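cron nightly-structures :: item 1 of 1
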Amino acid sequence: MIHTVDKKDLHIGISACLVGEKVRFDASNKPSTFCIKEFGQHVTFKSFCPEVAIGLPIPRPTIRQIKRDDIISLSRPDGSGDVTDALSAYGKKVASMTKNLSGYVFCAKSPSCGMERVKQYSPEGNSLKSNGVGVFAKEIMDANPLLPCEENGRLNDAILRENFVARVYAYKHWQNLEASGLTKHKLTTFHSQYKYTVMSHDLIAYKKLGRLLARADMPLEEMASEYILGLMTALKIKATRKKHANTLAHIQGYFSKHLKSNERQELCEQIDAYRNGLIPLFAPLTLIKHYLLRYPKDYLAKQAYLSPYPDELRLRYAY
């Protein structure tokens, strides 16, 4: 199966406070139930608290992002204790040491770890637009543009949660592929396993990636680099009910010569019910997997779309 990865081999970076470590400015934590009790059963977390790592105490005065013209600095509200350079340097250090990570979960709104929408202030203390990025988080993301990243707050959204986990497992699959020694055949095989996954996110990317692999004038390393960037970019796009229903209909076509009329009608009804928001994605997928056992199709059985991550996570039950 695509998602068969030993927990000890799947490493996810995470803000230390999200796994229960009391490292926040007020000596508290912000434990993520999903990360600790669900996702944590299948991955190994590598926790980081950049503020503690650079020597700030627990507890400690709060720091904030202060914007002067286009320059962002991190310091106490009165402007003292600037830690911008220290946090940036630590971010670069961690980024260089974490190439084996397959994902990262940041603490939302943190001036050091926030992935987006971090609150900023003027030197006079006036609140500005919340469009900053944590200084530490920015270094991690800039150094690892393919790395699936998400925030704890956004993981409360069922679609974003499923999207993140699916990207983590797809990226880990790619990392394993690279480690085994990439060849054109392996790259083509990998793409064949993710065709329906990409289709459910972005049909344009689905066609573009296919054309890319058909080129005979591109060096393998360049092709692989362009391919994985295109794949991970496409997977960031939310998969809608309409896109999923279209993908399910394509998969149904593989059974057209085998299904009886009542079976075909049942599957059509399941797909339409899902498209109209009456049932979760889990329902038509379960029926498809049932027919796949009855009418084996090796190509379909290898599709990441059908089992992108451990079923125990139950991520397709909610939408």
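cron nightly-structures :: done
The two ends are 23 Å apart (CA to CA).
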